[in-house]
Amino acid sequence: MSNSWNPWVLLFLAASLIAAFSQMLLKKSASEPHENIIKEYLNFKVIAGYGMMFASMLVCVYAYSRQVSMQSGAVMDAFGNIWIMILSFLTFREPITKRKILGNSLIIAGIVVFNLF
Amino acid sequence: MNGQSGKHEISGPKGLLSVIGIQAAVVVFTLSSVCSKMAGSHTGSIELFGRTIRGLSRTGYMWLFLELLCLGVYAILWQQIIKKYDLSIAYANRAFAIFWTALWSVVIFGESLRPAGVIGILLVFCGIFTVNSDVK
Fold first, then answer.
1. In 3-state terms, what secondary structure has residue B52?
2. Are B122 and A26 in contact (CB < 8 Å)?
3. Are the Cβ atoms of B88 and A100 closer than 8 angstroms?
4. Does the residue A75 lie in any domain?
5. Burial degree of B112 (CB within 10 A; 0-12, 13-18, 19+)
6. pLDDT of B23-34, one tens digit each?
7. Is A39 part of a structural domain of the chain?
8. Residue A38 and residue A49: Cα distance in Å, rounded?
9. Do A46 and B36 touch (CB under 8 A)?
10. Which of B121, B52, B124 has its CA nearest to residue B93?
């Protein structure tokens, strides 16, 4: 694994934000009643959500083609936890508790240690 | 079927099964990253209807297809998971993908994992444990 900084790794931050918005759509659909299991998956929100995730995936493939290492890409992608915590509060009123903040901080700390040291 | 967001336990003995269930989906998800990395390392071009399409080679597109397959299975599992748990809780558990991905990168791609990487993974594990302990 190369230790030199590869700026293309920042593409993973953009990809994780797109993926976080897609999760909002998926959760929205999962929280709603559906007539059957088929409609649970084949509805506008789920299809749009996975469409966004596909776009996010293409961004990742492009970043990997620019010689971003798999480990670096994966840890940058984990920043999605922060986007999710904020967007889940704004969208679903899931509380941002002290433990969630501490837990996600530890997760980010782990990511930084993993990636930079 | 009604959505039952956030009603299931993720801490305590019952929670262990929940965590294992979520991790099964996370493993499938991280295998999609393996395919993504494989696709990215197979750049080239293919001939389609007499035209040359640059981007990935035939093998690259095969890996892209396998990535989509993994994501499809993951999608089915994930939709059931977020129906049961708060998204911010379920997604925090997904962060353990760092462990699985590191495992694949060492085992499949022969990349090295430094001691700091192990410490990082342990920190992530503590973070997930802390978030999970928030659910009563």
1. strand
2. no
3. yes
4. yes
5. exposed
6. 999 999 999 989
7. yes
8. 16
9. no
10. B124
